[in-house]
Amino acid sequence: MNAKTADKIATALIVTIAAIIILILAGLLGYILIRGVGHISFDFLTSPPETIRAGGGIGPQLFNSLFLLVLTMIITIPLGLGAGIYMSEYAKPGRGTDFIRLVVEVLSSFPSIVVGLFGLLVIVNLFGFGFSLFSGALALTVFNLPLMVRITEQGLKSVPREQKEAGLALGLSKWKTIRSIMLPIAIPVILTGTILAAGRVFGEAAALLFTAGMSSPRLDFSDWNPLSPFSPLNPFRPAETLAVHIWKINSEGLAPDAPEIAAGASAVLIITVLLFNMIARWFGRYVHRKFTATK
């Protein structure tokens, strides 16, 4: 077999695999959206489950998912960025650094049910946070932190060495070089890790069953006192997220229109993730252009 034939076969094989992956993704998204979009309405998105239909309405669950995303990212992003910067620029090569990287790899492969049980025993019971959004955010941080650390480290290492050395040669401190030169260039890579971490927050259910809980108090959206037990801004209240609600509505079988509710909630979840990804990528490109003065 000559080189041209081998190249054509390899190209055809790679294109075929890529097409199969795209078709699978398109089929999955199309199936979920076609089944669920027809059940979405304004009342469905804003009303609690007990107000319309038997089990219908996902307003509190949708809000809980978004609120949990914000809490988790507030915890994950500073810790992930700090650890990634340390591993990339400050940690000296050696057994200690290799051990830290091994721990990060192990954490990233933990099953969600194990993290959920850990959260139940340590965060919920031992630390006394109870079933709450804050407990769920801490449990999800265990998932997301390894990803953020690795992505940040890889993003900083992808910065051309010449640019880093140019900053140091101009008399900039190491931290000033990282903050003003390296981080803006690495933002697209770091943003990709943030999007992946956020997607897991939206879709995670197993860990949240044992930490955030499977029920929510009747929320009063006119009460914005974060210390009130019925306030939607209270991070220490139990909260059923959208992914948990989909699992619960199907497993209990109490609602006569459970398949329709689950289909509509699944479509909302997919649309929310897609919108978040597009907005985050647009914001990342804007920040990258702003800091690097590129068009």
TrEMBL record:
CDD domains: TM_PBP2 (cd06261). Its main location: membrane. InterPro entries: MetI-like (IPR000515), MetI-like_sf (IPR035906), Phosphate_PstA (IPR005672). One of its GO terms (molecular function) is phosphate transmembrane transporter activity. Residues 62-280 form the ABC transmembrane type-1 domain. It is found in: Cell membrane. Pfam families: BPD_transp_1. One of its GO terms (biological process) is phosphate ion transmembrane transport. The keyword NADP does not apply. One of its GO terms (cellular component) is plasma membrane. Keywords: Cell membrane, Membrane, Transmembrane, Transmembrane helix, Transport. NCBIfam families: 3a0107s02c (TIGR00974). Belongs to the binding-protein-dependent transport system permease family. CysTW subfamily. This is Phosphate transport system permease protein PstA. The lineage of its organism: Bacteria, Bacillati, Bacillota, Bacilli, Bacillales.
